[in-house]
Amino acid sequence: MNYICPMPADIETEDIWDDEDPEAEVTESDGEPVERMRIVAEKRQEPLRIDKFLMNRLEGATRNKIQQAIDDGFIIVNDHPVKANYKVRPGDTIVVFETRRPESQEILPEEMPLSIAYEDESMLIINKPAGMVVHPGCGNYSGTLVNGLSFYLQKEEVQIDNLYRVGLVHRIDKDTTGLLVIAKTDDAMTKLAAQFKKHTVYRRYIALVWGDLPEDEGTIQAHIGRNLRFRKIMDAFPDGDYGKDAITHYKVLERFNYTTLVELRLETGRTHQIRVHMKYIGHPLFNDATYGGDRIVKGTVFSKYKQFIDNCFEILPRHALHAKELGLRHPVTNEWIQFDSEMPADMAEVIEKWRNYVSGRKNAGA
């Protein structure tokens, strides 16, 4: 499951990709954005920057926090995102969203099985299963990885005051499987987080996507921000007027006519980046209900094909995405360490079914 090795020869430190900066946007496991406040500007309202306008109406909010919320798409005017220098006018409807997160003292330690790929005094590598939310949020206050880590680390007598600040270095979605690094000390947290921020962490994903990609390798570049109507999901904005810059590199591993197995490496860390970018180029992840992959996107009209897809969906009741490899510098020794995880059984079975399907069609054609 894990091994220690020198830095790969074909990877320059500054060019290693990661998919989630510790300062990245809020992920779906944080909870669904909910409307906190709706304000309609009075008829006598004089033009005023929206950040200044809201400072007098949001208790405890600083100008920096308001500007960050605007950048992240949590503040909209007349159903559209705006910039911090937008001037509020009479009749404008301003909506402020928030993602409710429980405070650290609300986290209840829970005993649960944890798949630990590596552990020492400073860090843990966890292989997260499908269906496990990383940390508590709206509607998910128990059964999360953080609940399990809280129990495990207390048992190990590790003193961590706040698992949001110390311990949880990065996150992956509930239905994404694969590797996560956990810090066990303040110093390890600081050093690991710095690597993510500098984009010197190597992370390789494997995904099954709909369609036959036209090129064997490629790069997708389009800003990612919250969907303008449905705030829980993200969207791609190719013109770059909204959202944050996002770059995804892909490489085809295997083709199955109607689906493709790809590896993905990311240059930036945006919420749902892989899923949004693949949808944007017309190749959503297989069985991704949020981004249109839970239906037949490519294929034939034959009933046997529909039955085949339904069987695949039943075996893999989630989007087909696995965080397979993780490489970083050890926070104490500074030695390059790299980990590899096996493909989860449900995803591996569906991939094998596609291999057999393609093989059967070739034999039938012969």
Polypeptide structure, described:
Among the domains are: 65 residues, Structural Genomics Hypothetical 15.5 Kd Protein In mrcA-pckA Intergenic Region, Chain A; 139 residues, 2-Layer Sandwich (Pseudouridine synthase). It is an alpha+beta fold and 366 residues long. Helix content is 22%, strand content 26%.
Properties at a glance:
single chain, 366 residues, alpha+beta, Structural Genomics Hypothetical 15.5 Kd Protein In mrcA-pckA Intergenic Region, Chain A, Pseudouridine synthase, ten-stranded mixed β-sheet, four-stranded antiparallel β-sheet, 7 helices, globular
Question: What topology emerges from the helices and strands here?
Answer:
Layout (H helix, E strand, L loop, with lengths): L1 E3 L29 E7 L7 E2 H6 L7 H9 L3 E3 L2 E2 L5 E2 L4 E6 L17 E4 L3 E6 L16 H11 L21 E7 L2 H12 L4 E9 L6 E5 L1 E4 L7 E4 L9 E9 L3 E8 L6 H8 L22 H13 L5 E9 L6 E5 L4 H21 L1
Parallel strand pairs: 10-17
Antiparallel strand pairs: 1-18, 2-7, 3-6, 4-5, 4-7, 8-9, 9-10, 11-16, 11-17, 12-15, 13-14, 15-16, 17-18
